[in-house]
Specification:
The complex is a heterodimer. Chain A is mainly alpha-helical. Chain A is built from 7 helices and 8 strands; from the N terminus they run αααβββββααααβββ. Chain A has a 3-stranded antiparallel sheet, covered by helices on one side. The longest helix of chain A has 27 residues. By secondary structure, chain B is of the alpha/beta class. Helices cover 20% and strands 24% of the residues of chain B. In chain B, a hairpin with a 5-residue loop joins strand 15 and strand 16. The longest helix of chain B is centred in the middle third of the chain and has 16 residues. The two termini of chain B are 47 Å apart. Classes of the chains: A mainly alpha, B alpha/beta. At the A-B interface, strand 1, helix 7 and strand 7 of A face strand 8, helix 6 and helix 7 of B. Strand 1 of chain A pairs antiparallel with strand 8 of chain B.
Chain lengths: 224, 780
């Protein structure tokens, strides 16, 4: 680069002041200077250093994490192993908050909004409460109802599948899944519609069974 | 590649011979005929001339495709060509197309390629460029900013643009000094002095990113990139500015300096973004339990179900979403999604002179057309013109756009959120606080200003003492109140008219999910009983909101009544409260109603506007009426007399005509009541039953006025384009208007319009009116 640049400059100078002796002399002196071995060596060495440094920096940045999260990370825990024990009133639950009519708590109980107790848990004694409900789910683990998806996903027999899903996601370094702390959060997040759910960016691949917890995306209803 | 393009303004007037009355369309007095201008439409500017796309009949590996191309061109004796290498992850897989660069003998080479049995077609490579509504100051002239490039049609844009000044110079006025800090205009310093600074509130900024060490910011909790560009920094300045208005703590101050910022980089440096990126980023925002989310973005596509559903899901998870209403003003009916959603706080822009900024999108929502009527949006307005905020280089700069107004509101919410009890922070409560306390501006109507101008201090006081409640938006229906209740106030009700519909939004602060239990109309004596009110409402109020549509008709006993009728509607709402409450919360809201009723006008003064055959936001590709608008090839404006045809509406009303909107098929309407049926720019087709009904109606005295737009089969083939957002080719379904459908309709009168098209360039109301007058007179 450097060498080429100076030659261009010299040529330019030569053309501009073509014929004047002064420029010729200056030009000849410069050429002599550049042809010195030491100068050539310095130019070569600096180019090489620059080349190596930029190459290394490029290599580094490829492995660099491009997400910057200052919130401390908690390790992933499989909650289903440490079952909620004891009386119902001593525990508190997280629930899925968003539902129009249904909610699902972190124990896998699905219930109507009116059957949620003060501690956030579904009342397991209520008529409509059900644990690990896969009612609207297909065999590809895609469900019509979001709450069914989460409830079904929390079933202990799905543990192997979830581990597979989780390992796949951690391999992708997916920022969404690096911040998960337990299987309930994994199920809540995995069941939401995401980039895997859309076809042509503005429609669902499968408009009915769009909530999936498995590792395969919904089956496309319309031909590609 | 020079195509000949015509844009057709097609006016056919069908006058009935037994046309009643002598008044006719007496319009020529005030309407000056304007000569129709010629369209100078250059389409080929976007074509990359040397590059062509070869589409194969199947998916082949790279080597096979090359073999086919070589074979085809070898036979034609062409050697000077190269295939563009596409270095993307898909290159290892079979593909069905190649991009070829041809140096010479273009036509011969293209023919040879087309002849090859494995080639489906060869098309010109087009450069599709996408721009945001964000234009350099020096590009803006007096008439506003000109977009460059081609905006992809379903795309979302960043809603910001810079303009040197707002409204031109209409009259002399005192120029107010623009205050230095937006925060002091809204009296945020008053809250700061109380120790309310936004602390502990998680604010997400979905934008173009933010630099790590920007001197204006203190609490950037995380920065995430969703674009795959491997950078978190802002190269455009949009994201920095927006974040600055919310939380800057130096120089140009933001509202909530101590709020926790979560920066989501969702637009690339080239301003590209996809729905799928948004979905993943939104999921992350839910997981992070974001309190306030600012979306200074918008797009026309409210039919993008995955996106719309996801925004609902966010609201249901108690994320307060603030979004810019759009920069497509002053045209009506141009609201952007997601700001036009009921659960989102849609923000319009005003200047420091308290006038609606010219760029701010306005008009009712168009989701509900053709059978219903749009909702009131934006929700509130605030300063969006010439606001100072953080610059990407570290200093301050001044920007305009609804992108600026949106973070003003988002920052204000973040500020008040830190000063009120946590349980008061729901999307509905905050929206109620902002809307109920907003100060109404004198002049603009409700489809321009919503509830009015943001009043931060009053909203703070409201939210501090908040009791869970439901509210209605607008809070009353006074069909006589001009200017605020435009367009209702411009045309009184009368017996036998098509129903006048008011669409009220229910904001339910009682809980995320609820139901409308009962809606009852209580007429006030003596005249309220003349009015009939029928109601339709959403099945569930979810998330935090729902709609309530009221249709007003005058009963037969009011056929000769002239005066004002009053009454009120009681709306009973039942809702699930906090978790753990076994009983449902109940509330009854009162919606006062007032309307003016007149005796039925004569038939010749009554016009029927066909809304039913005009499409709202289309499912397919319907090219624009104005072909010069290349930045946005898709016609996404639902034509309505109260949106983009409002000038026509105004003119017709000025001339004493009564306009009724037909949102049902022609067969459902008693056409014998009307002087004329207006078919303006229809995109849809007509059913045989409708044609028969129309023929009968015209035979018995109905005039038919048809305004159509361009339609040209060869042009239609050429305006197809490849859309990067949906990754597919978009081929137009019809022209600016569906002329073949009109021809079908008119064929019973042996009229064929396609050949008799005249060159024109836009729906010029004066020219059109003149033509009607002329035709009608000829016929009369």
């Amino acid at each position: 680069m450097l060498i080429c640049g100076s030659y261009t400059y010299i040529n330019l100078c030569f053309v501009l002041l073509n014929g004047t002796l002064r420029c010729k002399m200056w030009y000849a002196a410069l050429i002599r200077f550049i042809r010195r071995r030491l100068v050539l060596g310095i130019i070569f060495a600096s180019s090489l250093t620059y080349c190596i440094v930029s190459f290394l920096r490029e290599g580094n940045s490829r492995n660099m994490m491009y997400q910057e999260i200052l919130i401390e990370r908690k390790p992933f825990v499989w909650r289903s192993l440490q079952e909620h024990k004891g009386a119902n009133d001593s525990i508190t639950c997280r629930n899925s908050v968003q539902g129009k009519l249904l909610l699902v708590d972190d124990r896998g109980y699905i219930c109507q909004r009116t059957d949620v107790m003060k501690n956030g848990c579904c009342d397991p004694l209520s008529d409509y409460s059900q644990r690990y409900n896969c009612e609207s789910c297909q065999d590809n683990h895609c469900c019509v109802v979001y709450e069914h998806c989460v409830s079904c996903c929390l079933e202990p027999s799905k543990r192997d599948l979830l581990e597979l899903v989780l390992s796949k996601l951690s391999a992708e370094e997916n920022v969404l899944f690096r911040t998960l702390t337990d299987d309930y959060e994994l199920c809540l997040t995995k069941c939401r519609t995401s980039s895997h759910s859309v076809l042509h960016e503005n429609s669902y691949k499968d408009p009915t069974h769009k909530h999936c917890f498995g590792h395969e995306p919904p089956r496309s209803r319309t031909p590609d | 590649m020079g195509f000949t393009h015509y844009s057709f303004l097609l006016i056919v007037v069908f006058g009935a011979l037994v046309y009643a009355g002598t008044e006719g369309f007496d319009l020529d007095g005030s309407c000056n005929a304007t000569d129709s201008a010629r369209v100078e439409y250059e389409y080929n500017t976007d074509v990359v001339s040397s590059e062509h796309i070869i589409t194969f009949k199947g998916y082949f590996p790279r080597s096979t495709r090359k073999k086919y191309v070589t074979a085809a061109l070898k036979n034609a004796g062409i050697s000077n060509w190269t295939i563009l290498q596409r270095n993307n992850p898909a290159k290892e897989f079979p593909s069905d197309f190649d991009v070829i660069i041809l140096k010479d003998e273009l036509t011969r080479a293209l023919d040879a390629l087309r002849d090859h049995p494995a080639v489906r077609r060869v098309t010109a490579q087009r450069q599709v460029q996408r721009t945001l509504k964000y234009v350099q100051e020096d590009n803006c002239g007096r008439t506003g900013c000109v977009y460059t490039g081609w905006r992809n049609h379903r795309a979302r844009d960043l809603n910001s643009l810079r303009r040197p000044r707002e409204n031109g110079f209409t009259s002399r006025k005192l120029l107010r000094t623009v205050p230095r800090q937006i925060t002091s205009v809204l009296k945020a310093d008053l809250l700061w002095s109380l120790g309310v600074t936004g602390e502990g509130v998680r604010v997400a900024v979905f934008d173009t990113g933010l630099a790590r060490n920007h001197p204006h910011f203190g609490r950037i909790r995380e920065r995430t990139d969703w674009t795959g560009e491997n950078t978190l920094d802002d190269a455009l300045g949009h994201g920095t500015f927006v974040a600055g208005v919310i939380a800057s703590r130096a120089e140009c101050l933001g509202f909530a300096p101590d709020a926790d910022l979560h920066i989501f980089r969702i637009f690339t440096d080239n301003q590209v973004s996809y729905t799928s990126w948004f979905l993943d980023a939104f999921n992350y925002a839910i997981m992070r339990k974001i309190d306030v989310l600012n979306l200074s973005i918008g797009g026309p596509d409210f039919m993008d179900h995955p996106f719309v559903d996801k925004v609902w899901e966010l609201s249901a998870n108690k994320v307060i979403i603030v979004s810019a209403i759009g920069n497509d003003g002053p045209l009506y009916g141009t609201l952007n999604n997601p700001a036009d959603q009921m659960d989102v706080i849609g923000v319009g822009g005003i200047g420091f002179d308290d006038r609606i900024a010219k760029f701010s999108s306005r008009g009712m929502t168009t989701w509900e057309l053709p059978s219903g009527y749009g909702r009131m949006k934006p929700d509130i307005v605030t300063y969006g013109s010439g606001v100072r905020g953080s610059s990407v280089t570290g200093g301050c700069r001044s920007l305009s756009g609804t992108s600026v107004a949106s973070p003003v509101v988002a920052g204000a919410i973040a500020l008040l959120a830190s000063g009120v009890p946590r349980q008061h922070l729901t999307p509905a409560a905050v929206k109620q606080a902002l809307c109920i306390t907003a100060r109404r501006l004198a002049g603009p109507n409700m489809f321009e200003q919503g509830h009015g101008k943001l009043d931060l201090i009053s909203a703070y006081q409201f939210l501090r003492e908040y009791e869970p409640q439901a509210s209605l938006s607008p809070p009353y229906i006074d069909l006589t109140e001009c200017q605020y209740m435009w367009p209702y106030c411009t045309q009184p009700l009368y017996y036998s008219a098509q129903p006048t519909i008011a669409n009220v939004t229910v904001i339910n602060g009682l809980g995320v999910s609820g139901q409308v239990k009962d809606v009852v109309w209580h007429p006030h004596l003596p005249n309220g009983v003349l009015l009939s009110v029928s109601m339709e409402y959403s099945e569930y109020l979810w998330p935090w909101s729902g709609w309530l549509a009221l249709s007003f008709t005058v009963l037969e006993k009011g056929v000769d009544f002239d005066g004002v009728v009053e009454g009120h509607v009681n709306v009973t709402i039942e809702s699930h409260g906090e978790v753990g409450e076994k009983t449902m919360r109940n509330t009854t809201l009162m919606l006062p109603i007032r309307a003016r009723v007149i005796p039925v006008p004569v038939r010749s003064r009554r016009l029927l506007w066909d809304q039913f055959h005009s499409l709202r936001y289309p499912g397919g590709y319907f090219p624009r009426d104005d072909l010069r608008a290349k930045h946005d090839p898709l016609d996404w404006h639902a034509d309505h007399v109260h949106t983009n045809f409002r000038d026509m509406y105004r003119r017709l009303r000025e001339h004493g005509f009564y306009l009724e909107v037909m949102g049902t098929p022609l067969t459902c309407v008693d056409t014998s009541l009307y002087g004329a049926l207006l078919l303006v720019d229809p995109e849809d087709e007509y059913f045989p039953e409708e044609m028969a009904a129309l023929k009968k109606a015209v035979d018995s005295g109905l005039s038919l006025v048809v305004f159509a737009d361009w339609y040209n089969a060869s042009l239609l083939r050429h305006v197809k384009f490849y859309d990067e957002n949906t990754r597919q080719w978009w081929i137009p379904e019809t022209g600016g208007a569906n002329v073949p459908a009109l021809n079908d309709l008119l064929s019973m009168y042996q009229v064929n319009t396609a050949a008799s098209a005249s060159e024109s360039h836009e729906r010029d109301i004066d020219a059109a009116m003149f033509s009607i007058a002329r035709f009608t007179k000829l016929i009369l």
